[in-house]
Amino acid sequence: MTSTKTFPIPADAEARRAIKPVICYPPETLPRPDLALYQAAREGATKVAEVLVPAREAAVFEAEAGQFFRISSVEGPQVGDLNLWNRNDISERFFSGKTRALHGTHVSTGERLWSNLPYLRPMATILADTLEWYGIDAYGGSVHDVIGTRCDPYTGALLQGGHYHHCCHSNLTRALADHLNIPLIEAEPHVHDVLNVFMCTGFTRDTGQYFMKASPVRPGDYLEFFAEIDILGALSACPGGDCSTEHSSDTAACYPLRVEVFAPAEGALAGWQSPARNGYDGSHGR
Ligand SMILES: [Zn+2]
For residue 149, how far is its CA from the centre of ligand 1 (angstroms)? Predict the structure, then answer.
């Protein structure tokens, strides 16, 4: 935010600033995932698919409800931009903004990725995060954010000019178009605000500006999810690499990312049900 001196400071300014905040959405009111059941099912699970996302490109993957998908760092520190859709109806997709409101600016083990309105249900639950040790650093930075949007060529054109074609937005658009066999112009509106996997970000305390810094991720680190519904996912290996300097160019060192999908053993999820779409009746008072 920018500060101006247009208006007078009220006499009780400090008193107003000193009012304690309240948490908008206390997490204890959210339905809780049965992590112990998921963990037990994961132990007997077997790998059914693997995709290597090339540097500065994106790739798609699918996971059925009840399966697990793991995103791993390989070769070098690399950030990934993740989009999720309901595989059976891609109008239902990951809702970064509400996930942020429910869980905070960064997500980790036990937290969930929620879908857009009118569905608003958990699409995936984070089951394991090897970077959970990082916490919140002295700058207010943390990993796996739901505050950034994705690097895109429009913002690049606005700020630097030119036409860079390997921003995450374009990578995700091409990958989705190829997978669904639809033109780019049809695929593009389905690309949405991402989960920034492994990215280390925050807001500066003095000016409230969005910042990034070198990701603490190292080869072998991973973020693993339980698929609550049938998932079509797309992951872009961001042209920013570890996002320590710049993105939207070919300057940064970039590495691939691996996505693996695991299926649980028969009967391992006994008693579990894929969540139904949101219970609101949709009448909006009419
Ligand atoms: Zn990016």
Answer: 9
Q: Where are the domains of the chain?
A: 49-263
SS3 label, residue 265: coil
Distance 195 CA to ligand 1 centre (A): 11
For the entire predicted model, the pTM comes to 0.95
The DSSP result for 202-264, as a single string, is: EE-TTT--EEEE-----TT-EEEEEESS-EEEEEEE-TTTTSSS--SSS-S----EEEEEEEP
Q: Cite the beta strand spans of the chain per DSSP E.
A: 46-53, 58-63, 68-73, 80-86, 89-93, 112-114, 122-129, 142-145, 195-203, 210-213, 222-227, 231-237, 257-263
Structure tokens at 44: 């007997």
- Residues 157-166, mean pLDDT to the nearest whole number: 93
Q: Is the pLDDT at 2 greater than 80, yes or no? A: no
Cα of 77 to ligand 1 centre, how many Å? 14
Centre of ligand 1 to C-alpha 240, Å, is 6
Alpha carbon separation from 242 to 129, 246, 280 (Å, rounded): 17, 9, 41
- Averaged confidence pLDDT in the chain: 95
C-alpha to C-alpha distance for 39 and 105, rounded to whole angstroms: 25
Question: What is the chain's alpha carbon radius of gyration, rounded to the nearest angstrom?
Answer: 20
The residues whose Cβ lies within 5 A of ligand 1, an ion, are: 81, 151, 168, 238
